[in-house]
Amino acid sequence: MLGKSIDGKILSGIVMFVAIMILIGWVAINEEARMQSFVVQHTGRSIERGAELFASLCAECHGEEGFGQGDRAPGLNNPHLFGYDPVGEFTAAITNASRALVRFNDEMEALLSELTDSENPPSEERQSEIFARIDELEVMIEEQDAIVAESVAARAETLNQLSAAVENGLFPQWENVTDIEATTAINEVEVFFNTNGTRLAQVGWAGDLHGYIVTTLIHGRPGSDNVWLNSEGMIAWSQTAGGPLRHDQIEDLAAYILNWDKGSAWTSEDFMAVQQYGKPWSDGSLPSEPPPPPVGDNPLRILETLQAEAIEGSAVSGESLYDAKFGCTDCHRNGASAPDTVGTWTRVLTERLSEPQFAGYSAEQYVVESIVNPGAYVVDGYNSGLMPADFGTRMTSQQLADIIAFLKTQE
Amino acid sequence: MSILPFPSFLDDVKEKGFKKAVFEGIDDSVERLTAGMNIQDVREALRGETASRRPNPRLTPHADGFWLHMRPSYFNRDVTGMYPSFRLGWLSSYFVFFETITGILLMLWYTPSPEIAYGDMLTILSNVPLGQLMRDMHRLGAEFMVAVVAMHMMRTWITGSYKKPRQFTWFTGLLLLVITGFLSFSGYLLPWDQLSLWAVTIGASMAEATPVVGDQVNLLLRGAPELGANGLLRFYLLHVLALPALLFVFFGVHYYKVVIYGHSLPPQKENIGEDSAKRVPLDKRVYFIPDMLTSEMMWLGVTTFVITVLCIWFYHAPLENHADPQVTPLGTTAPWYFLWIQGALKLGDKFIWGVAFPTVALGGLALLPYLDVTPSRRFAHRRFMLTIAALLVSLTTVLSYMGLAKFAVKTSAETEIVHELTFEPAHSKVGVGRTIPFSQMIVGAYTTAQFHGPEGMSATDVIAEFNAETSENRQFAQLIDELKLQKLSANQLPLRFRTIPVEEAPVLMRVMEEFAHHLDEAPEELPNVWGSLVITDNQRGLKRLDWVVSWDSVVIEGGDVQLDEDGNPLFVYETELVAAVDSDGEPVLDEFGEAVFEEVTVLDEDGNPKPLRRIFSDHLFIHEASAYFD
User: Is the CB of A44 less than 8 angstroms away from the CB of B302?
Assistant: First the structure.
């Protein structure tokens, strides 16, 4: 046996060491590929974890499929966020054709002046050359003109298709899509897209999209509850800024959001699917209109105002205010700590108003009083003092009207 | 005469000629480096010839050199074979150096901070050539080392080698075993993944049970009430500094004792009560140089080769998700070599089983040579001690088995089953639900009810019938409500169940069969159960899998299903609040004149009480590139 004699042991030992070197060398050559596939696999798992986080933390406001929700949170599954230019190819074609036209026209002009030069008339031979070239140029100019016209039309068509998206907040500076297209200065579209065509350009972000998403996740958007009427605002999500998530989780979320990117394959349907676009940041000046004043805490005066200004409530937006912005459902559910939301209106009509102290009250008056002055009456079996008494200073008339409209649906 | 003011190499050249002078210079250097052997001596040794010089130059490195003074200059032929040592002591030392080298390489890429550590692991795997191999080797080496050191101890016990004069050698060996355990344990935390955080949390919490100082010990160890930045730093310093330092000290003592007392002979080779290890007859001597040295070099090659092969093809160090103190994974266990303590803890009091029992066990081991003072090392004379050894091994095995997660207190059946199908990669295993190939995750809602149709009925008919049934009894509506609650987009909600496309998705079929099989195994806790898997598209290359269990609720107390006299489970029935009426059909009013409501069990058309239908779901996302299915 090899391991018995000294020669055998030395031989076996050398064979083993050489074998180890060969094995490690073999692993080393394959390392590049292995490391690459590890990165791919790890990105996949990061996206999975991000999806999990998104479903549990973000979907509530940004929508399950990331399309956003009206006046609550912007869509992230959104070509505008990813910098897709829907009219980019047309704009490029127009620019190219315009440049060619300038070149052709210059040449044509030069040829004509050569032809009409009386001091130094061209030879017969040269003349026929020039005429041939002019014929050629005329055809080419016609071609380029056609391209411009075609592209402008196609671009207008595409922009028209986006008008529904414009209504959802895409390009808020764009008063009227067709107007700008109709102007003679076709470059205006290009200029407009350079400053507004992507979310990053719109907010003047110099870094990349990943950095924009990560920084937004880390710090949130302090004060965005003033921008988004139906939301409490984006909180700081990172532990760095006092939020709940670790940085690797922030990166997972960013990986998930970035995975919505379709590159050049976005379509106008994708623009249409977005429920809400990001709002442009203010330029620092105050809003043109001051925010509407709060309703105050006098139920009768509030009702007068609602009537005088003919404010109509919307049950849909009321529900969102009730659930999210003001968080009423946190307590008003199941009837455990506060009366259940379900059946409110019926109970008000049948039970509350029949009580002697509410003689002469309308249902609206009872509800308004309960909201702005919750201590005035507490339903039997529930504790007083639980409901915040400051809703009168936090709600606008419109919001109150919306909530009443929503409560009317709770029969 | 030299050009230098002292005799130099140039003088030699002048005197003897260049060639001879160079040769003698080299020969001289070799003799100094080997502490006594010149080139001729080395040649003779490696050729297996006897030494031509007297005194024997092969003994001088042991007498004069540092490294070999810790090794005996010759062995008894009876201890150089596989038996009695099984090379376990040598292997233990091998792993000490192996772990040191691989560990130092890993240290280059590691920062002990909770924010960075896990990212460093990913860097080692994704951006360091041979990083994965180094990590696998270090981890596998650590597992081997614990096992080898423990086996080394058992071998010493079985051959009675701890007896006089080697009592203290045994004691230092035991210390080395404990240090090895703690080294391995402290290294466990460093990757800062879920596996490490929770295994170490469990391990460290045992210290808490120590009376009086328990809290303080725990605080000292973790650096804070919960494992965090301080705890990680402390474990790191223990792992790379304190414990290795201790290890090398006792390693030296242990080896020195071996030189002093020699290797104990196989018990039957010497007379009872005699220790003849140091009196080796001339014809039995095997010299370290060259026999043992070449032997050890060969084994060095063989062992490293085996580990390399294992780490390339058969073993990869686990790395789970980032540590998260908020999320306790189901089925967390301590590292395998501490499972016996975890098992013992399930027997009762934390202090008795978690602290007193291991202390008594280790204390008993330490005192073993002083308690067992019988002179004979022969197996036939040591039946009692060998029985104790066998019992110790059996006890440790049984306790370790009890320490496994499957021996743990069960959570509810539906949670267990869904977890079993979906758990993330852990301990080199992964929930079978994650192994469905991406191309086989065909969008749709599938149900385990497909496997429970009447004999001979086609799958399509079974599903059609089940669709009708669940739509009528509103169980499908309940499923939809649950999915909505879990934030499945309204556009993606399934309209009905569909048959499993077995042709296109055989693995999906297998997983659904396994799902059904698991559900069938809990007939008491989950009566009239069906499970569903709802697959939806989420993003490009990303699918969402919702696992749903729907069943009739039963009464469960203390984790056990309550049964009636006939052995059938007691159901929980659906109730509703209705206005109470008296015998005349008039509404009952309370003292304030308000209607009185009472809780009434809901009856079905046949007048039977309707069991409360419960639903449970969990979802996971699978990305195309995650490759759980490789």
Answer: no
Is residue B598 situated within a structural domain? no
Please name which of B548, B446, B423, B544 lies closest in space to residue B501, comparing C-alpha atoms: B446
Contact A35, A29 (CB under 8 A): no
| 8 Å CB contact of A13 and B324 | no
How many distinct structural domains can be found in chain B? 3
User: Quick one: pLDDT at residue A286?
Assistant: 43
Tell me the C-alpha distance between B40 and B42, whole Å.
5
pLDDT for position A285: 44
Asked if residue B421 and residue B396 are part of one domain, the reply reads no
pLDDT of res. A178: 52
CB-CB neighbours of A347 under 10 Å: 16
Whether B169 and B296 map to the same domain: the answer is: yes
Question: What is the tens place of the pLDDT at every residue in A122-179?
Answer: 888 888 888 899 999 999 999 998 998 888 888 888 887 887 787 777 877 665 555 5
Tell me the three state secondary structure of residue B413: helix
B chain contacts of residue A9, beta-carbon cutoff 8 Å? 294-295, 297-298
- B542 interaction partners in chain A (CB closer than 8 Å): 47-48, 51, 259
In a domain, B76, yes or no: no
Task: Please list, residue by residue across B487-526, b when 16 or more beta carbons sit within 10 angstroms of its beta carbon and e when fewer do.
Answer: bbbeebebeebbbbeeeebeebbbbbebbbebbeebeebb
Of A3, A43, A51, the CB nearest to B625: A43
pLDDT at B536 over 50: yes
Share of chain A above pLDDT 90, in %: 27
Q: How far is residue A255's CA from residue A214's CA, in Å, rounded to a whole number?
A: 10
For B298, B342, B433, B573, the CA distances from B292, given in Å and listed in that order, are: 10, 42, 54, 78
Whole-number Å distance between alpha carbons of B394 and B378 = 23
Q: In sequence order, what are the residues at sequence separation of 6 or more whose Cβ sits closer than 8 angstroms to the Cβ of residue A293?
A: A396
Q: pLDDT (tens digit, 9 = 90+) per residue, B208-248?
A: 777 777 788 888 888 888 888 999 999 999 999 999 999 99
Task: Give the ipTM.
Answer: 0.85
Quote the pLDDT of residue A182: 55
Out of A132-146, B114-128, B426-440, B563-577, which region has the weakest mean confidence (pLDDT)?
B563-577
Answer yes or no: do B130 and A51 touch at CB < 8 A: no
Residue of A nearest to B300 (CA): A13
Which residue from B529, B527, B561, B569 is spatially nearest to B548, judged by alpha carbons? B529
Q: How far is B410 from chain A (nearest CA, A)?
A: 26
Using the beta-carbon criterion (under 8 Å), do A64 and B488 form an inter-chain contact? yes
What percentage of residues in chain B have a pLDDT greater than 70? 98
Residue B28 shares a structural domain with residue B90: no
Minimal Cα–Cα distance from B13 to chain A, Å?
36
Query: Would you list the DSSP string of A90-149?
Result: HHHHHHHHHHHHHHHHHHHHHHHHHHT-SSSPPPHHHHHHHHHHHHHHHHHHHHHHHHHH
Q: Which two three-digit tokens encode residue B1?
A: 């005469």
Query: Across the A/B interface, how many CB contacts are shorter than 8 Å?
Result: 129
**Other CB atoms within 10 Å distance of the CB of residue B610:** 17
> Are B319 and B427 part of one and the same domain?
no
Amino acid at A263: G
Is residue B399 domain-shared with residue B517, that is, in the same domain? no
Asked if B459 and B322 sit in the same domain, the reply is no
The verdict on B123 touching A (C-beta cutoff 8 Å) is: no
The sign of the torsion formed by the CA atoms of A123, A124, A130, A133 equals negative
Enclosing domain of residue B468 = 413-567+611-626
pLDDT-based confidence at B1, cuts 50/70/90?
A: low
Hey, what are A44's tokens? 């996949």
CATH code for the domain in which residue B119 is found: 1.20.810.10
